[in-house]
From TrEMBL, chain A:
Source organism superkingdom: Bacteria
GO cellular component term of the entry, any: plasma membrane
Region Disordered, annotated ranges: 691-715
Protein name: Cytochrome O ubiquinol oxidase subunit I
Gene3D superfamilies reported for this sequence: Cytochrome c oxidase-like, subunit I domain (1.20.210.10)
Lipid bilayer topology: Multi-pass membrane protein
UniProt record similarity statement: Belongs to the heme-copper respiratory oxidase family.
Keyword Aminoacyl-tRNA synthetase assigned: no
Main location: membrane
TrEMBL record, chain B:
Heme-copper oxidase subunit III family profile domain span: 32-210
GO terms under cellular component: plasma membrane
Keywords: Cell membrane, Membrane, Transmembrane, Transmembrane helix
Topology with respect to the bilayer: Multi-pass membrane protein
Chief subcellular location: membrane
Subcellular location: Cell membrane
Organism: Acidithiobacillus caldus
Name by which UniProt lists this protein: Cytochrome O ubiquinol oxidase
Length: 715, 212
């Protein structure tokens, strides 16, 4: 049944031989040395400071949704950096390799990268940025914020949550591993068939792509089940559907898309895998295969996926803009409807990815119109944000600046998206860099929202604000880079430049490519400022400590509990009386009232099982890539055994005793009052400029900061 | 919420915190998640059936045998009867659960499990019979999807059988704790779901294949 492979194969190591390690490539060798040194530093430091127990107990085995969310974001950040390096290499290569007289270095005829290497880079860039950077960042933020916004103590399935994280991490690790052992796919991130079939791509690159992708798909599907169940089942009492914060609504609609579309991708990839491993004929060029079947199955996932990414980003903007406009969100109900309309339409647009593949005009018209339809609910959202700012007291703090950048990019990306939606004009620039520039506007919108969301929720998760000066430099250099890279790209797209080029034949395009390189330099500077931003923030963290309500004008439940949030989220589950509950409490002078007399809290217990499931899944994938059958069977057996053994575990819960809750709550209050700037926030949580501050002055305006007016109250 | 409500609210008149809040019900939360999982699996089957629709064209036979030539309805009929009897037996096990009878649950589940094994036996005979005639997934695009659907469904039956074994052990050890009960309910959903999917397999793969 197994496909007969050409080339050496041994039962012990499969196709893995020493020649597969690309030590002769100076770029990869340099990367390997860098990664190895970094890894050794981390391992030595962890051992030296005796932190292994801490890392194991608090992070690797955790089922706490906040810590899992933080780890998701870390994975996303690392992969974002990796994807950025890939982008840098593509842009430098294209800037060098213009025209027949362009120089060649490092064994390449033009530029410094061989065509095979460029192929791997743009494939990795696409896959990493969408699946291993944007998705973990968004899922991570949803993971942290959604349970807090709905007043829950944890996700519906904490153990499954950790499993989702470790499966995604295993996929990301597999992509990184492909740098140093073997190679990566080289035909575009969405896998052209039949080019990705074994006869045309016999190497391990496609297999790496396939299994890394599949692992992340599994992780995200499990995550979407978890988030939907959490939102439906775990909302605090009183939180009716129409009182749910808008970010939670956006997460719900995004995860409904994920729940229904990711399984289709799983099928698309599994059938390709069967073609490659078992010799079936789903997508082969002959023998009854159908290559359009792959394209259809893939984009049935692929287009809803982009809305899966963008809806949480919209949700983040919908939280940031009201907070920094000091107003309630304009058009709440229409915002909810718009989110679900976008989610619904997302299912009817996938064929626009192949307008030029000889579909009938009626089919192209249908998909053209449905693509344009997306603009209506998106437009509703844009106007809602603008009306939220209208007559509000807009404060240009960093989260707001990022949200406004996202709004601007949405306009540019949305307008050019409408241009792409015309099937007739799409014939001109299909597979060109105009489309590339368009969707980079959209994903940069997502990136801008994520940066805004990180700035916005960072004090909630870590207890201190990020400093603003270096953050603003980072922001402005991101703006500069975006303009200098993608405006020329739009022009080149109209001029007819196609995507994925390792060599550019037309020398008249050179000026644009060099301008884009300047833009990349701005991005590099931006990365530098980002690191400085993080460093300075960490260094000055004591100075920037905040209380529960970090921005003074926040509106939702998550800002009612301490910063950083204790393990149990809320000492008492809040009862929700209004949409924007926290704003409502502040408005009516109820903000300083806390329930005392704490009770025991039941929480899930930490477990190492998800981590090991992730490790064995990675082992399984690695074994399948190299066709080491014994290792694959062993890992599969271990996975099944571990799942069964875990189901027999009766000791999965733990109780936080009431005294412990009392201690943590007191410490959190005292810790805030001892600090200078934050004490104002506890005593007087609404800053003086706020329009929300009620005339009753009921949120402890009269009470002194040293003696917070909280009393055990039984309500 | 109207933005003008700045009048003072009497703190004693509103509920701000939930005392003794038990949280959401464990069993219903777990079962809801399992329904969501089944939706994902239904999407997998939907994609597979769509692929069957695409790959049933005469071009995709690639000179291999057409569906009508390889489908033996007797096997499929036997599989249908066995699977539905198995689901019925599982239903009796749930009846026994209501009356709290450990023996009843385990007994009916054993019957259900054995019928599942019989189902797998018939499926293996059917597929083995075709393989022995040289009709294998590698022959054509159509046969690839034909066998994929049958084997994917059979894998689910295998998972269900293993799951039942695990549950029998857990009932014997723990009795009807909340964890065991929610798993029994989820397994019921899973097992019924396989029977429902089998209806589609029977319709689209066997019946439609025979008339095609």
């Amino acid at each position: 049944m197994l496909v007969h492979l050409q080339g050496p194969w041994t039962p012990l190591l499969g196709r893995l031989t020493l020649q597969q390690i690309p030590y002769q490539n100076p770029i990869l060798l340099g990367t390997f040395i860098f990664v190895a040194i970094l890894g050794v530093i981390i391992l030595v430091a962890t051992t030296r400071y005796g932190k292994w127990g801490y890392v194991w107990r608090e992070w690797l085995t955790t089922v706490d949704h906040k810590k899992i969310g933080i780890m998701y974001c870390l994975v996303g950040l690392v992969m974002l950096f990796r994807g950025f390096i890939d982008a840098l290499m593509i842009r430098t290569q294209q800037a060098i390799a213009v025209g027949p007289k362009s120089p060649g270095f490092l064994g390449a005829v033009h530029g410094y990268l061989t065509p095979f290497h460029v192929g791997q880079i743009f494939t990795a860039h696409g896959l990493i940025m969408i699946v291993f950077a944007a998705t973990p960042l968004l899922v991570g933020i949803m993971n942290i914020i959604v349970p807090l916004q709905i007043g829950a103590r944890d996700m519906a399935y904490p153990y499954l949550n950790a499993l989702g994280l470790w499966l995604t991490t295993a996929g990301a690790a597999l992509v990184m591993l492909s740098l140093f052992i073997g190679n990566f796919a080289h035909g575009g991130w969405y896998g052209f068939v039949p080019y990705f079939e074994l006869p045309y791509s016999p190497g391990v690159g496609v297999d790496y792509w396939l299994w890394a992708f599949q692992l992340s798909v599994l992780g995200t599907t499990l995550g979407s089940i978890n988030l939907i169940a959490t939102i439906v089942k775990m909302r605090a009492p009183g939180m009716t559907w129409m009182r749910m914060p808008i970010f939670t609504w956006a997460s719900l609609s995004a995860n409904l898309i994920a729940l229904t579309s990711f399984p289709v991708l799983m099928v698309a990839l599994a059938l390709l895998g069967m073609d490659r491993y078992l010799g079936t004929h789903f997508y082969t060029a002959g023998m009854g295969g159908n290559l359009m079947l792959y394209n259809d199955l893939f984009w049935v996932w692929g287009h809803p996926e982009v809305y899966f990414l963008i809806l949480p980003a919209f949700g983040m903007m919908s939280e940031i803009i009201p907070t920094f406009s000091e107003k309630t969100l304009f058009g709440y109900a229409t915002m909810v409807i718009a989110s679900f309309a976008i989610g619904g339409v997302s299912w009817g647009v996938w064929l626009h990815h192949f307008f030029t593949m000889a579909a009938a005009p009626s089919v192209n018209s249908f998909y053209s119109v449905s693509t344009m339809l997306v603009g209506i609910p998106t437009g509703v959202k844009v106007f809602n944000w603008i009306f939220t700012m209208y007559r509000g007291r807009v404060r240009y703090e960093l989260p707001m600046m990022w949200a406004l950048l996202a709004l601007f990019l949405l306009l540019v990306g949305g307008m050019t998206g409408m241009m792409n939606a015309f099937a007739s004009s799409d014939y001109m620039w299909h597979n060109g860099v105009f489309v590339v520039a368009h969707f980079h506007m959209m994903v940069l919108l997502i990136a801008a929202s994520v940066f805004g969301a990180v700035e916005y929720w960072f004090p909630k998760v870590f207890g201190f604000k990020l400093e603003q000066k270096w953050g603003k430099w980072f922001f402005w250099f991101m703006v500069l880079g975006t303009g200098w890279v993608f405006v020329p790209m739009f022009i080149l797209g109209i001029a007819g430049m196609t995507r994925r080029l390792d060599y550019i034949p037309y020398t008249q395009w050179a000026p644009y490519l060099h301008v884009m390189l300047v833009g990349m330099a701005f991005y590099v500077v931006a990365v530098g400022f980002f690191v400085a931003h993080l460093y300075v923030s960490l260094r000055d963290r004591e100075k920037n400590r905040v209380g529960a309500d970090a921005w003074g004008t926040t509106r939702n439940l998550e800002w009612m509990t301490h910063s950083p949030v204790p393990a149990y989220n809320f000492a008492f589950i809040p009862h929700v009386n209004a949409r924007d509950e926290w704003a409502w409490r502040k408005e009516h002078g109820l903000a300083e009232l806390h329930a005392g007399d704490y009770e025991d809290i039941h929480m899930p217990k930490n477990t190492g099982v998800p981590l090991f499931l992730g490790i064995f899944s990675m082992g399984l994938a690695f074994a399948l890539v190299w066709r080491i059958w014994w290792l694959a069977l062993l890992c599969l057996a271990l996975i099944v055994a571990l799942i069964i053994i875990r189901s027999f575990d009766r000791d999965t819960d733990t109780t936080i005793p009431a005294q412990e809750v009392d201690r943590v709550e007191r410490a959190a209050r005292d810790g805030v009052t001892e600090n200078g700037p934050a004490s104002d926030l506890l005593g007087d949580p609404v800053v003086a400029t706020s329009s929300i501050r009620s005339e009753s002055g009921g949120m402890g305006g009269k009470s002194s900061a040293a003696q917070p007016a909280w009393a055990p109250m039984d309500r | 919420m109207s933005a003008t409500t700045t009048q003072k609210i009497d703190p004693k008149g509103v509920t701000l915190w939930e005392r003794h809040y038990p949280g959401p019900d464990l069993i219903s939360t777990r079962t809801f998640g399992f329904w969501l999982y089944m939706l994902t699996d239904a999407m997998v089957y939907a994609a597979l059936f769509a692929s069957l629709g695409v790959l049933s064209h005469v071009v995709n036979l690639a000179g291999g045998p057409p569906p009508a030539a390889i489908i033996d309805p007797v096997y499929a009929y036997g599989e249908t009867i066995t699977l539905f009897l198995s689901v019925l037996a599982y239903g009796y096990s749930m009846v026994a659960l209501k009356s709290g009878s450990r023996g009843g649950v385990i007994g009916a589940m054993l019957v259900s499990m054995l019928l599942g094994v019989v189902f797998l036996g018939i499926a293996a005979t059917d597929i083995g019979h075709l393989f022995s005639r040289g009709i294998i997934p590698e022959t054509s695009g159509f046969l690839s999807i034909f066998f994929t659907i049958l084997i994917y469904h059979a894998l689910h039956i295998l998972v269900g059988i293993v799951w039942m074994l695990v549950m029998i052990a857990q009932i014997a050890r723990d009795g009807f704790t909340a964890n065991v009960v929610y798993r029994l309910i989820n397994l019921r959903l899973f097992w019924h779901f396989q029977a429902v999917i089998w209806v589609f397999v029977f319709t689209f793969v066997y019946l439609q294949g025979m008339v095609a």
